[in-house]
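Student:
Attend to each token:
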Amino acid sequence: MANVSSDKRIRARTSASSGKGDDASRPGESPSETAVVAVWEPRPARAGLVAQVCSDCAVTAHRLASTAAAASVAGHAAAVVDLLDAPDALDVGLAMVAELKKASLPIIAHATGAATWPISTRCRVLLAGARYVMDDDEPGFRNTLKATLADVLAIVREERTEACRLRALARAHGIVGESFALMDAFRSVVRMSKLSDLPVLITGESGTGKELFASVLHALDPKRCTQPLLAVNCAAINAGVAESELFGHVRGAFTGAGRDHSGYFLAAQGGVLFLDEIGELDLDVQAKILRVLQEKRLYRVGAGHDASVDIRIVAATNRDLGAMVEAGRFRADLFHRLNTLSVHISPLRERLADVPLLVEHFVAAHSSWRAHTGIDSDLADALSHLPLPGNVRELENLIATAQAGKTDRSPLGLKDLPPRVWKELAASGFAPAEAKPVDSGVPAPTDSIAHLLTSQQGWNLDRCLAHCEREIVAAALVRTRHNQSQAARMLGLTPRSIYNKLRKHQLLRKPDA
């Protein structure tokens, strides 16, 4: 048993694309790039075999010297890890697997005698992050490893192609950002859009873009995209007239009902009804919404018969509906029905990589009423250090305020933000990264990171990692005199990856005026 996690498609795909020049063996972002595979091989003999297998698959083997070196695998295509030769010697190998898992690499693990290991030991390897576990003492190990690696690389290439297509589709629908959290949520919405008759629950803080995601669901729904999308703010509906507003009424149903009223549900017939802040509705109305979901029929207030309704309900909330169910303030049956398909939009503070792109987008969006004078590199950096409880909506308002108050022709920057923002940044100890000397390629000192983590301005792990990444990339640029290709090689990145990081951290050189 050479491959404990065997997959028949590995051999089929390999036999179909055995030529070394076949495109399926090149998973890089473009045909001119060579993919890199991280290799942890303490045994020299195995290291040579794995290097040859990588060569056969037209990829470069990057041999890691220690567990700490796993931090350098950003942009790599996959990883091969030697778990050594006995279950009781797994700890070092498992530690490497765990580190490589943080980089989201598909990991192929192998060890002598792995085929005879108990299920519990193999599961430890899989739980650590390995996708495959192989026995390197089996006669066909080299061929099996080659077949598996070729399959993994092909899948990586497909995923990267899909990621590019997904980013383009997101931009086409007004979704600005490329962070993993945002793209993961968008990918879920794309998949859910095809399930035209199932409700969807969108959760996220205020200002994260829940209504925008609902519009994407509607636009990509093959059955309902040509029918209405009706958005209703449930928090703005008076509790006394909520039933009439949602389900409609007939003439004379109550005092003041001088004519028939169809209600939001029937007005959205055939299309999508977006119920924003659904947690604000009272329990009686929730029960009637549940009936519509279950039976596809509703009663208008005062009507003697029911009416059929064919709509898709997309609900959204910034509240914890699970906690509301436990407190008796939201119906459990409605919650579980809505939560059949759910997507969560992360707050902006958890996807700082999107801030520079959003800044560029909003500055360009408001250039119709003010000439675009450019963006200073310290603007996105400063805004990334704000907690922004209002998320994307608050960020847009800050950009609009800065542009509205600008009186000169210089690039929009830190100096154009409102005084209240300066006070907040001054209290946080923020300083633009360009103002710090970068001459040795050494990241910020540990005590500086400790200070950031203990500050009161939201310096969590993601923000510290983004800060350190920026410092390291900036240092590589200084060391290579702004030669992007050399900086990419120094950091073990592809040219595309280094460009994306320069753009993300506002480190691209501006052309001379």
